[in-house]
């Protein structure tokens, strides 16, 4: 059984490498520097007196509609599988040099928005929560007030979106983040298959 499993994985890895769009991770325009630690990626950008970091994790970032693997067994081999897109939640932190606080904005891609490119007006990501956290603390405190945007005055919400756009976090950025995340997810998936193959073959 393990032999067949290893053989299946070998074929699968070859297939995945064939459809891999990016051999190296795509860059995000606008002077963002990328750091990757396993499945977590961090984009950092410094502008006058501020440091902006955007963090996301590719785990569980493929929307559920794309994960209907069972139906693909019945496909004819020459049919193109739908491309999987990774749309992770991402956290934007804005740190001003002269304050001890960090403004944290929790953003996500609404599932029904993806693919509505015709609607120029709509933003492809939304802000879900906003809070202040002490700068430099890794553990955020639940005791800090967190503003949930569900019931927020739309004018304030628009200002928050503009605030992000002024710092380079806009639709173009979000598109590039999806592309980066998708490439990273695929890269990690191939690595996982390779590790699994080594594990299965290990006697």
What does this structure look like?
It is a single chain. The longest helix has 31 residues, at 171-201. The protein has 203 residues and is of the alpha+beta class. It has a seven-stranded antiparallel beta sheet with strand order 1-2-3-4-5-6-7, covered by helices on one side. Helix 1 runs antiparallel to helix 3 (171-201). The chain is elongated, with a radius of gyration of 20 Å. It starts with a helix and ends with a helix. The protein has a domain at 28-60 and 84-111 and 122-193: Roll (Mitochondrial Matrix Protein, Chain A). A hairpin with a 2-residue loop joins strand 2 and strand 3 (50-57). The chain contains three helices and seven strands. Mean pLDDT is 86; it is low at 66-79 and 113-120. Belongs to the MAM33 family. GO terms for molecular function: complement component C1q complex binding; kininogen binding; transcription corepressor activity. Residues 58-88 are annotated as: Disordered.
Question: How are the SSEs ordered, and which strands pair?
Answer:
Blueprint: H1 2-19, E1 33-37, E2 40-47, E3 50-57, E4 90-96, E5 101-108, E6 126-134, E7 146-148, H2 154-166, H3 171-201
Antiparallel strand pairs: 1-2, 2-3, 3-4, 4-5, 5-6, 6-7
Helix pairs in contact: 1-3
Membrane topology: Peripheral membrane protein
Organism: Polioptila caerulea (Blue-grey gnatcatcher)
Family: Belongs to the MAM33 family.
